[in-house]
């Protein structure tokens, strides 16, 4: 804790040796000293006369938050000219109106022309008001601000430069936020010069160059340049095919075409890039981002410091492999080539991958052993997750069998005609299956997921981006290598990409122009986070697997314990494991009930009592905290219901629409349950664990969906396809079908072509 003016501030352990910029966005959270440069377009209103007060207040709030975390914040601001122009216009109008009223003797005023205002005069009139506004805003957060006006001479005169440096350091030491601006009231017009050639030479001719010079002079960790565009584009923003550059490296200038400068201010994007590269050369990291967009301006600064993918990040360290954006484009191009292959060729790739899983068994298990040893040494994974991480010979054999099932069932998945209609004579319409596009599959601690999902993507002709957990890095690497080896047999190696960069999952979920569907495979928390983070991209999956087994009064004694044991104990960490056991009230205190309890005790299952069940017992197990709980371990809840109708109501209220089971010999009761439970999978006298793509004969699954749109339940090849319409005509136009036209609609259903059942 440090104090200034009796106000405590919680400080963060932020320190790093200056001299080298951060290599990755994820490191920006360690930035201690930060300069925020506010461009004229950010600070001023759209009419260029006056300040954008709401935007400015939001920026001050973010800077204050970071300052109170123990960081040292500085602001380089524009806005004095715009603020002064507003004040001077008001004064001129007032003065003209008084003179005109006196001169004419009339109260009615004629139209008055406002003269062109000189920028230096506007700056002189606006500086005091701008600073007063900043002081008032920072006071709301118990932070003091101080104004510093500089010119080029303050950097090139050695004594003045030392004085400026000393003043800034003293202000930062006292937890004061310096507000720096060029002294536009006296600064000479910018002249062409040979600046930006090296770390020791730069002219302060706009606030971009001022911010860069200041950042290097003060050994700043991070310079944030806010403008009215999202960042740096490879061509002028708004032009066709303009793409935002996520990371910009020195030497990339040749690949960029600069447009015009912003509506206000001295510099354009070219000036910002030159200043940013100069600061980068001096050891300061730089991000150029949009400070005017209403959806992001309220958190743009804090998002950048947290390492989120916002704007353009300048880095001197170029990664060895492609960026995730490049991988997305490669996956899309590879997926289209994959979809154009013959079905036999796609099947051949999957068969080859299945063979590689068994042929390269030793190498795969060796890589998996490294992951297991690292996970155990770090002690960060719970036992259920360690089980998911582990591969074995039997698992690999099962994987290979599942892949061969996918290959066999994929022969007519893409391009299959599912509807044919004769619209009119010689005008036929077909609806055919096509790939969705590019899939992003995010999975935790399950390397066996990689070949499964890859095979399904190959069979359905989709491009694929895979993001696995770092705990399975070695296993994922070799499995992806084998997948690409199989894909290479038909020249489509790029269709499946493994994301190995430091991309945060939240950033991947924002790539709506590259990704068509996100499929999370992991904990309920992971799924919820992805559903929350996804911006404009549909997410297929389920956040929870709260599966129920209802034991009816007509249940078979032999079946009950077997099904319950398998549902709960066979693999308790699975999303299709039993979590709540519903028992008909009439079964309490019967031999069957005793057998169920004895079996759960033998299997060491911890029992939690639901409210109604607890009310029947004198000494009950711990009462459940919530009936909507997914335990993922050897634990379950037992609750009592009075009827099958009440069981259905309980499932609808507390379930997650995943998998629910009834155990009964009464067919009428079973059919009622099957028809009325609104879940993705509903079973009669069968374990919840059958809810699985492999067990359904789908070969494998990309996940289990509880969504009500598109795919539901275990999702195999069919769930990764959509459709398109093909219309074949012969000089047909809609006007021919008008009231007085020569043609009539037929809308006849045509037979479908025979499916390949081999």
UniProtKB/TrEMBL annotation:
Protein name, entry field: Delta-1-pyrroline-5-carboxylate synthase
Species the sequence originates in: Eudyptula minor
Listed EC numbers: 1.2.1.41, 2.7.2.11
GO MF, one example: glutamate 5-kinase activity
Keyword field: Amino-acid biosynthesis, ATP-binding, Kinase, Mitochondrion, Multifunctional enzyme, NADP, Nucleotide-binding, Oxidoreductase, Proline biosynthesis, Transferase
Protein's UniProt keywords contain Transmembrane: no
Principal location: mitochondrion
Ranges of residues in domain Aspartate/glutamate/uridylate kinase: 32-290
Pfam families on file: AA_kinase, Aldedh
Reaction catalyzed: L-glutamate + ATP = L-glutamyl 5-phosphate + ADP; L-glutamate 5-semialdehyde + phosphate + NADP(+) = L-glutamyl 5-phosphate + NADPH + H(+)
Known function: Bifunctional enzyme that converts glutamate to glutamate 5-semialdehyde, an intermediate in the biosynthesis of proline, ornithine and arginine.
Record's keyword annotation contains Ligase: no
Subcellular compartments: Mitochondrion matrix
Record-annotated Aldehyde dehydrogenase domain positions: 324-588
């Amino acid at each position: 804790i440090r104090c200034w003016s009796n106000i405590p501030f919680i400080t963060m352990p932020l320190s790093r040796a200056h001299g080298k910029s951060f290599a990755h966005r994820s490191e920006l959270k360690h930035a201690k000293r930060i300069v925020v440069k506010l461009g004229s377009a950010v600070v001023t209103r759209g009419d260029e006369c006056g300040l954008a007060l709401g935007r400015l207040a939001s920026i001050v709030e973010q800077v204050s938050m970071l300052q109170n975390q123990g960081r040292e914040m500085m602001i380089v601001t524009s806005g004095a000219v715009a603020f002064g122009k507003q004040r001077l216009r008001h004064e001129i109008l007032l003065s003209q109106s008084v003179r005109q009223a006196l001169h004419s003797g009339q109260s009615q005023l004629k139209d008055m022309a406002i003269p062109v205002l000189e920028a230096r005069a506007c700056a002189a009139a606006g500086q005091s008001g701008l600073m007063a506004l900043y002081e008032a805003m920072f006071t709301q957060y118990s932070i003091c601000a101080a104004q510093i006006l500089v010119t080029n001479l303050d950097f090139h005169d050695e004594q003045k430069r030392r004085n400026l440096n000393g003043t800034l350091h003293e202000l930062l030491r006292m937890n004061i936020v310096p507000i720096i601006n060029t002294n536009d009231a006296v600064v000479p017009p910018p002249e062409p010069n040979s600046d930006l050639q090296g770390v020791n030479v730069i002219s302060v001719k706009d606030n971009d160059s001022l911010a860069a010079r200041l950042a290097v002079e003060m050994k700043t960790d991070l310079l944030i340049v806010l403008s009215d565009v999202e960042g740096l584009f490879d061509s002028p923003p708004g032009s066709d095919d303009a793409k935002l550059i996520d990371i910009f490296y020195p030497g990339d200038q040749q690949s960029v075409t600069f447009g015009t400068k912003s509506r206000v201010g001295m510099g354009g994007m070219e000036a910002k890039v030159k200043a940013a590269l100069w600061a980068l050369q001096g050891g300061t990291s730089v991000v150029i981002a949009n400070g005017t967009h209403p959806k992001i301006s309220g958190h743009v600064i804090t998002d950048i410091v947290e390492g989120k993918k916002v704007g353009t990040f300048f880095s001197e360290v170029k990664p060895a492999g492609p960026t995730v954006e490049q991988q997305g484009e490669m996956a899309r191009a590879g997926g289209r080539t994959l979809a154009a292959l013959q079905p036999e060729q796609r099947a051949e790739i999957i068969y080859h991958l299945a063979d590689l899983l068994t042929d390269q068994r030793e190498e795969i298990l060796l890589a998996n052993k490294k992951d297991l040893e690292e996970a155990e040494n770090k002690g960060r994974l719970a036992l259920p997750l360690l089980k998911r991480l582990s591969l074995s010979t039997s698992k690999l054999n099962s994987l290979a069998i599942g892949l061969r099932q996918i290959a066999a069932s994929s022969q007519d998945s893409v391009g299959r005609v599912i509807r044919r209609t004769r619209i009119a004579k010689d005008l036929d319409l077909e609806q055919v299956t096509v790939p969705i596009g590019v899939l992003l599959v995010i999975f935790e601690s399950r390397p066996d997921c990689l070949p499964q999902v890859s095979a399904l993507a190959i069979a359905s002709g989709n491009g694929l981006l895979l993001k696995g957990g770092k705990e399975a890095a070695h296993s994922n690497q070799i499995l992806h290598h084998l997948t690409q080896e199989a894909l290479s047999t038909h020249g489509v190696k790029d269709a499946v990409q493994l994301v190995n960069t430091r991309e945060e999952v939240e950033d991947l979920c924002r790539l709506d122009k590259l990704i068509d569907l996100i499929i999370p495979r992991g904990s309920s928390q992971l799924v919820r986070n992805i559903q929350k983070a996804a911006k404009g991209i549909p997410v297929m999956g389920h956040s929870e697997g709260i599966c129920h087994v209802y034991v009816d009064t007509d249940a078979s004694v032999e079946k009950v314990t077997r099904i319950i044991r398998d549902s709960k104990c066979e693999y308790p960490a699975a999303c299709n494991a039993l979590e709540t056991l519903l028992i008909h009230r009439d079964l309490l205190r019967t031999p069957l009930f005793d057998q169920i309890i004895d079996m759960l005790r033998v299997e060491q299952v911890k029992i939690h009592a639901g409210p109604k069940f607890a009310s029947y017992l004198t000494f009950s197990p711990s009462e459940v905290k919530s009936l909507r709980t997914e335990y993922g371990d050897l634990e379950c809840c037992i609750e009592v219901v009075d009827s099958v109708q009440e069981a259905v109501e309980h499932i609808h209220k507390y379930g997650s629409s995943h998998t629910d089971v009834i155990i009964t010999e009464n067919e009428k009761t079973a059919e009622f349950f099957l028809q009325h439970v609104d879940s993705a999978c509903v079973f009669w006298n069968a374990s919840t664990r059958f809810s699985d793509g492999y067990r359904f004969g789908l070969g494998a699954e990309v996940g289990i969906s509880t969504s009500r749109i598109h795919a539901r339940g275990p999702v195999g090849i069919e769930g990764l396809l959509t459709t398109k319409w093909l219309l074949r005509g012969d000089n047909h136009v809609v006007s021919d079908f008008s009231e007085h036209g020569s043609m009539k609609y037929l809308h006849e259903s045509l037979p479908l072509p025979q499916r390949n059942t081999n």
